[in-house]
Amino acid sequence: MWKTIAGLQIPAASLAELQSNYLNQATALWNASLQSSLGAPAAAPKPLGDRRFASPAWSANPASAFMAQLYLLNANTLQQMADKVEGEDKARARVRFAVQQFVDAAAPSNFLALNPEAQALALESKGESLSKGMQLLWDDLQRGHVSQTDESAFEVGRNVATTAGDVVFENDFFQLIEYKPLTDKVFERPLLFVPPCINKYYILDLQPDNSLIRYAVEQGHRLFVISWRNPDASCVAWTWDDYIEHAAIKAISVVQEISGAKTIDTLGFCVGGTILSTALGVLAARGEQPAASVTLLTTLIDFTSNGILDIFVDEPSVKKREATIGLQSPKGPGLLKGQELGSTFSMLRPNDLVWNYVVGNYLKGEAPPAFDLLYWNGDSTNMSGPMYCWYLRHTYLQNELKIPGRLTVCGEALDLGKIKAPVYIYGSREDHIVPWDAAYRSTQVFKGERRYVLGASGHIAGVINPPAKKKRSHWIGKSSSLPAAADDWLATATEQPGSWWTDWSAWLAAHAGALKPAPKAPGSRKYKPIEPAPGRYVQQKA
């Protein structure tokens, strides 16, 4: 990475312009501050436009106000410099990312000696805020991460992941949950959810009013959901093929056996969608077409360009992972710890997910409030090294999943174009993990009936958007045409108010078959209930 960055430079003309603009703005800022300190009537202060400095304590103290404004000027100039750098695209993206990390970390609000709001709070509380902050810091050191919520306020199965159901199958890789029907009749084809294995499944079942799981059951679907095992030291040798054969494909066959249905509806979220698509591609190569429909939520299939995550992946970085936790490791395979993965994702939005809590927790002594989404976000999962290394190399680095016949998975030449099921593809417009246009590229991989829908907001908030709340909006194409370029599709798409869930529900109902009486008991004679949902696997800590 440093070799690529070392060769970058800023054009002389652009640098000169930036320097001139900076000097002019810095001089104006200094003169305004000097006049104010000498008692000259000052103009009404302009809002800083940054919530880190929104407290009146920053504007009440001239030195603090000057420092905040100077920081914002410096930060803006550094970011402009990063934007002007000439060189290879990935190297330039790395420069921008590194500059953003530095800029966010250097904010005066992050330091007690420079934060007038935290200082005032310490004086008002006679040091109690600092005492509480030190206690919160000590507690987080014991946990190994910065707390984003009151973790004691939640318990899986008690007030998150509460939709009623039973575990009807388990193996070393996953538990399969069947949910209790909430309607007298259900569609004849069951529905299988494949969540991401890098997170726990209950993002789809946080609370009754925002649960996609509960919503699907309420719509009359006999729903099964994979709950992944949180890998430990006994799982370090698990491969991508293992996840496909012993988890996704096995879950499909168990759902078919329990329901008696020849074909089932399927849904994959994020990496779960990549796993589901791979499994269906393997089955297609074996002459099997078990899916009546496929729904892919914020899923990558074509990894041509994937936003900020691309900066972390190149040949040297992948080789390093392979040599430390992959099958090629001299010490044997290992685990990618959940905390490392969680920290990486947090640093994609450092102000919101790191420094905001450093300031609130430690400088102000304010314990973070209870928030179910952030509790889930901190409930991390490990990944087996070989599986993770295969995924990095063959998708993010070499982008081979979309190429017919390029990969062999579970002994089969993979061609996702051979999957005959209709596909519903969803992307979130502000998604920084799976950019919406990257999700759209899946429309060019599958060959059958396809529908693309774009939702507002980000990777999680865009997906978890129940209709009853009447929030956000979504975009639907004016026709069934899916041009190669995502922007061409968006140019003719129409914005619809509210959640995309209703559009998906109507689409899914058309592929779910006739209605029949709901089953009176979970599982079957062969697959008897093992324990109530949410089951043991989801409660395992990384």
UniProtKB/TrEMBL annotation:
Record's keyword terms, sorted: Acyltransferase, Cytoplasm, Transferase
Positions of the Poly-beta-hydroxybutyrate polymerase N-terminal domain: 50-216
Start and end residues of each stretch annotated as Disordered: 516-542
Keyword Acyltransferase: yes
Main location: cytoplasm
Pfam families, sorted: PhaC_N
Subcellular location: Cytoplasm
Protein name as catalogued: Class I poly(R)-hydroxyalkanoic acid synthase
Organism from which the protein derives: Roseateles albus
Domain of life: Bacteria
